[in-house]
Structure formats: structure tokens, C-alpha cells
Records
---
Amino acid sequence: MDEIVALCRRRGFIFQSSEIYGGINGFWDYGPLGTELKRNLKNAWWHDVVQGELIGPDGNPVDIVGLDSTIIMHPKVWVASGHATGFNDPMVDCKASTQRYRADHLVVLGAIEPGARLYAFVQADDEQRAKSEKALLKYERRETLDPTRHVLRPFTAISDDERSRTQGPDAKEPGSLTAARQFNLMFKTLVGAIEDPANYAYLRPETAQGIFANFQNVVDSSRVKVPFGIAQMGKAFRNEVTPRNFTFRSREFEQMEIEFFIRPDTAVEWYGWWRQQRFRWWQSIGLSSSNLQLREHDRDELAHYAKAGAGVCDIEYKFPFTDPDFGELEGVAHRADFDLRQHAEHSGKGDKARYFDQEKNDRYFPHVIEPSAGADRGTLALLCEAYTRDETRASKVFLRFHPRMAPIKAGIFPLVNKDGMPEIAEKIWKELRKSHVVEFDEKQSIGKRYARMDEAGTPFCLTIDSQTIQDGTLTVRHRDDQRQERLPVGTIGSWLTDQIQGRFD
Ligand code: GAP
């Protein structure tokens, strides 16, 4: 992962936000290549989902319309949605190190004996685990752990007395960890000039509520009929207690969400369809099946509104920092009619907010299937999937992006800067850049230019050489197997379009 982070910075995919001031934890900026990559992912989602030609389980074309709602909404939205009271993480502070941890991420190692010293660490952090084990062995003057005495327990399961004997992950002495307390993850802000609690508002923690709050507006202003979906992509903000793993858990991130409204009796059918649909979509943009899994939530994991529903599952990716486990890319949930009912009640619209089905002459609150994906996690998965070491190459590393996702589609090079080659190359570049992101490069040796493109994940390099002048063909060099072939200059634009839209194995 460290290598991927370093490459992202060096080649301008992702930078730490405000790096010149020492950075700000949990915030990331996308550089020129990263911006293209993330935009390709979002465009593909919008194109395939909203403008796509999906056929639903009922055999009809799937109808989805777009929405672009505000980041700051009326504070009552978050009361109705449950976020004002329920969107919390349990947090533990260390008074000695001033570090903050998620209580449910901490585990405690030590003997269950009165007076024994205990050591807390973040479960997924192997370095912290090794440090805690070493400290425990030193304190007890032992060579190895004793499995009959030393046990590992969740931090949330220990008593206050045990907590007072626990040394925090970044502390030198025991007793500095506070009890866990609930911490609301929404960022608070002030609307207007007067500093008054009545003017507090929140940055949205999900784009979904903008959709629910506009359900009636969309129904009244367009010709949609259940089943139909509303899609929205945009920023969401969560004041995560411990942002970690590069962009995976950020405090500002982008979501791509669909609320798909259905008749309640069709929930099982649509839930199953969306689950498969979304899994296949991630595969179609280049994530391999061996790194993807669909995980159905256990009943005790389900949110209150999903308990009686058709199901909730996560589409998960095996990131280098979760390996051999998987981390969530997208959730697909049957949210029943929870949100529409809540907004009907809290807005005072009541039963008038129910949807009217003209054909069936029936009024009801539609149920919702929600596929909710993260654009930053998706971009990170694409980077991790693409990262390929190859010691035989000058670059040692290349990024094997699906051509549709690649930030630059082709590099265009004159072999040498004479005999009219730069002029032909520049002409081809000017033509291709009308419809694709392509880069013209005439500097350094051809090997170095290939290496630069390999590291950027550019699938094709087009080289203009002396044969181009004789027969009007150029050399195409393929990134993945470094194969070369000659193609006529005149067909290169349509060839490139085919490659970008084509299959990728
Ligand atoms: N409306 C449902 C919802 O927001 P979620 O599972 O909390 O569900 C959906 O979020 C997706 O948003 C996740 O699958 C993930 O891809 C992305 N996401 C959530 N929290 C994130 C964070 N702190 N940093 C980056 N992405 C995040």
C-alpha cells in the first residue's frame, strides 16, 4: 500500500489536502491524473446506470432520473432520517497522547487476573499489535505469550477497573484511556450571521436524503412511475473518529447513490436484481472477480428499518490493507418505506405524501432498494487493482487500468524529432484530443516515454516513425504485454474508440 500511496503522490493521482501546511487528517486532493480517473469512474456510473439501457427483472427498461441537491439542507431532514440522534460512533480518547480511537476498533491484550496490566491496540494494526505484545512481555519478564492466561478481548467488553489498568496504543503508562462515549459524525456549521443554535445546520453525511426529500417534487414534475429510480452523485461529509487507509475512510468523500422506488410486494425480486447488477458493474470496469465479493449482512448487523426487509449486502473489494479480508465498496439495501414515511411525518405532509398509482388506483409509500457506492473507494480499488510490478520494465511498475478508466487513453510520440515526424505526430494528437484525453510527448528517449505512460496507466502508445512517412501507418504499443502492431493513421481514431469501449480481460 505504501508503494501505491507513493506512486499516487509522485504521478499526481492523489495528494494529501493542504500538504504545504502539514496536511489535514482525513482529507485528500486529486491531482491531474487522479481527477481524470475519478471522473471516468463517475461518468461510467452515470452513463451505465442513469442513461443506460438496463432491463429490469420485470422485462421493462429501467427508468432512472438524476438529481443534484444541496449539501446543506434543513436541519429537520437529519432529525427525520435519524442521523441527528443515531449517526454516532463510540469514541475513546487517550488523555496522555491526545489520540482518539474508535472503541469498536480497539482490542485489549492481557491476563484476566486482578491487577494484571493490559494493553490496547487497534485490531487491524499489525504494528500496534506487535508493539503491545512486546511491551506486555517486557512488563511480565516473559519470552512468549501464555495462551492459557493471555487473552484478547474487545475494548467495549472490559470493566472500568480493567480500563484503569490498560495502556493505550500511543501511551507510555496505563490509565489514560477514557470510557467510550457516543460521537455524532455530522459536521456542524452555521447558516447566517448570528451565532445561535437555531441557525445550526449540517453538511450532509449521505446524498440519499436529498433524494427522499425531493421524491414528491420529482414525481410531480416528471413522468416517472413506480418502479423508477432517482440517482445522485456528490460530496458527503463524516467527521470520522479515525480516518485511515488512505482515501478509504475519509472525512470528505463522494457518493454515487440510487434510490430505486418499487411496489412493496416486488422488493425481493428488485433487491436480488440490483445486487447482481451492481456486482457485475464493478467487474465491467476492471475489478477482477477474485478481488470482489458480495457479502449478505447478518441479521444482527441490520439497521432497524431493514430488519424485516428483503436484505442488505455489501459489495466488497480485497484492498491491500484489508487482505485477506475485504472492505466495503458499495452497499445494496432494501430500506423499505422508512425514509419516505419519516419525511412525510416530520414535514407534516402525512398521508398526502403517499404515491398515487393511477393504473391500480392505489395510494402507498413505495419501498426503496438503495445501491450506494463510494466514488473515492471505487477510485482506490481501481488503483489497487491496476498496480502491477514488473521488474523487467524501465518503470518497474505499470498501472493496468481498463482502457475506459485510464486517465490518458494514448501517448503520441514522434520516434525522433526530425524528418517531419513531430509535425505528423502533432497533427494526429490535435485530431485525437477532440474526443479523447491523449498526450503528446517528444522529450527524452522512446523507452523513457513508454515508462512514463506505463506508470500513468496509459493503455496505448502511438509512435510515428520513418515508415509512417512512407506508408501512412504508425506503431501501436500495448501497455500490458508490450506487443507492437502497425495500424493506418487514418483509422486510429475509430480504433481507439473501439478499444476504450471494448472488452477487457
Ligand atoms: N445512503 C447509504 C449510505 O450512505 P454507507 O454504507 O454509509 O451508506 C455508502 O455509505 C458508501 O459510501 C460506502 O459503501 C462507501 O463506499 C462510501 N463511504 C462511506 N463512508 C465513507 C468514508 N468515510 N470515506 C470514503 N467513503 C465512504
Note: Residues 206, 208, 238, 240, 249-250, 253, 255, 257, 328-331, 370, 372-374, 376-377 surround glycyl-adenosine-5'-phosphate (CB under 6 Å).
---
Amino acid sequence: MNKPIQSFSKLSANEKIKLITQQYFEDPQKAQALLSSYLLSNKSLQEIHSQFSENNLSNFVLPFSIAPNFLINQKTYCLPMVTEESSVVAAASHAAKFWFNRGGFTANVQNMIKKGQIHFTYNGNPNTIKKLFRQHKSALIHSTHEITHNMRMRGGGIQSVELIDNTKTLPNYFQLDIAFITGDAMGANFINTCLETMASTWESIYFQNSSLFPKDQKFEIIMSILSNYNPECTVSVHASCPIENLGLNLKDSERYAQKFVLACQIAVINKFRAVTHNKGILNGIDAVVIATGNDFRAIEASIHSYASKDGSYKSLSNASINRGIFHFEMTVPISIGTVGGVTTLHPMVRWGNELLGWPSAEELMKIIAASGLAQNFAAINSLITTGIQKGHMKMHLNNILNQLGATTHQKQKATNYFQNKKISVKDVETYLTTIDA
Ligand code: MEV
């Protein structure tokens, strides 16, 4: 077994690079050169990026793109999108343009409540701990007053604290369930700081009142952490138009709308399809979430768990036809922020937020949801008409050509040649051998 690397984080960036490349690469010089070629020439910008993460060696670049023509609540936006998946931005742009001419997207935020929990065990009579909680609930909230001061001034802060008895499902397990409003901040740090403060107050309250409890009774704080499940931080988004405006002749439009509705129903009842259907929605959501400096892992966790809130995993979006009108809608939880952390520090995030007109968190929730619905619309549209590969592979062809080192001339010829053909890496490779570089 290899020896573990000691105190890696204490080494300078150059020492880290040397150690790693010499130990793991056939050609350390070449590996080092690649890392340096991805460093920013602007030293102060590079410094900002290097400080985002521990043990940073270089930058990992993803495309930053724009999807224009998003009409959301009658306001036009160009969306910043960060994604490596070739067809995502093109699909979002097409869907946005399609709906731009049909009234755009309408989005509403239902609520912006985020939850945090203090998990603890207590092996005595549940009624005794419940009584202690009722008597000291305001002291628990009060103990966070300094931390919540600014947030309260902005209309946020702690909304409720409840004690939940889980002892029937896990012996001795209780939790304090705390609801927060965090304004324009995502609020993870704020929530966790409040929770840890409240947990230590709750512990002190218990031990200060220990005379009320028999000696053999045990109380222990297990952990305090926000929850990424946000069923009360949701946004709904909707697009609709008369069937005849779907862009085909009436008969074809009706058939198209029915097929679209069926595609969504399949994703409601079939888990295998639902996961892919929702992944398509997240293609749009994640790209804007990343571009705006938000935590896409939290969003993914939250949205996938919300998709199974009724007991089985389902499509998040739904389509219907009502009196000749085609409706397409979804509701998703989106806990994001537009101030604090990376949103304030990352220059490209600030660029994207300026492009969006410095939205509030509530406005950004609507924008992100519209991006998800547009992406889902584009995917279903392709799936029920031409098939997904046509659009996908057109973009993918470029990646294959780059991967195979094609020249500009070869790229042009290959693009024409494969216009209406199915594409595989092997086919492209074979084709390249038949033309001059
Ligand atoms: C690919 O990234 C996403 C799709 O598979 C979504 C879907 O099938 O709905 C095209």
C-alpha cells in the first residue's frame, strides 16, 4: 500500500503541482504545462478563483453561453448558461423563441421557506421534553437574535420552531424543525449558524433543568444542519397557446398536442422514463444555476426528492389540452440566492446577474424554472417528432470532429456530408480518411 501524502494542503501551489505530476504522470513537464495553460493571465482574477477551493492547481473550463429570447412574465431575458452538453443551449434557445411568439412563460413563486433541523435523542417521557420545549421556545429563538438581526431587518429570519417526536420510527429520536426565510441569500451558512447556536442553547436549557429529569435519562444533540429538501420553496411555471398556434396545420397540431400530453403521462407513470424526463428539465435548470453561482448539487437533490413527494418518482412537468388550449406546466423547489458567497465573488457570475438585470432570488427562481420548462419542451418536441439524435448529433458531430483532430476544411465537408445521416464516431472517422485534410 502507498503511504498517504502528508500535509498536502500546507504545500504551495507549485509544490503541489510538482508532487502530483511527478507521482502520477508519465510526462510531468507536459502535465504541468497543461495546468499552467488553463491559469488566467490576469493574476488578481486567478487569485479569486484559486481561493474558491482548497488544493487548487488550475482552472477547469466549461462553456459559458447565452440563450436569448426568454419571455417570462412579459419581461425579456437572455439567460446565461454553463453546460458542456452540446445541444442544451440550442434547445433552450429554440424553445424560448417558440414560446416568445406565443405569450412566453408565466411563473409564480408560492413560498420561499427553507428548513433546518436539530436532531437529538432523549430517552425519557416525550411529554416532559415537549413541556420543556414549550416553556423555552422563545429563548431558543432569542439566542439567535444577533445572527438574525440583518435578515430580520430585510423581512426574513426564523419563521417557526417545532419539536417533532420521531420516537415511533427511531427510538429516542426527536428533532427541532426550524423554518427560515433568507431573502435574496441562498442562506445555507446563515441557517447552519442559527441551527448550531440554537442546538447549544437547547442543550444548555436541558442541562440547566436536569433536576426535572430522572438521573438515568439521557439527552444528546446528534447534529444540526439545513435540509436540502425544500417543498415549501417552490416556483410554478406555465406556457400555453391555442392548439392551432402550435405551428402545424390543425390536424397535425392536434395530433402533436395529444402525443405531447401522452409523453408527459408516460413520465408520470413510468419511473425509468420519469428520471430521464426530469434530467432533461435539469439540463436547463442546472445550466442557469451554475452560471448564477448557485449550488447545483443542492438543487438536484431537492428537485429529485420533490419528484417523489407523493410516494413514487414522477415527471415534474405536465401537459394537458383544455378547450382547444395546449397547456404545459411544472412546479419545482428551487432554493437559490443572488447575494453572498460565490454570487458576489465570481466575476462571471456577476456578469450573468447583470445580464439578467440583478434579479432578486424570487425573480431568479422564476427564470431558472422557465429554463427548465423550455428545455423539457425542446426535448419532448424532438422525441415525439424527429427523434433526439437529429439535433443532438448535429452538435455532437462538431465534438467528434474536434476529438478526431479534423481540419477546418474537413469539418466543413463532414458537416455537409452528415447533414441528414445518422452519426457515429466510427462513421466520421471512416469518412475523414476519404477526404483531404
Ligand atoms: C438528454 O440530456 C436529455 C433528454 O434525454 C431528456 C428527455 O429524454 O426528455 C433528451
Note: The CA atoms of residues 297 and 416 lie 39 Å apart.
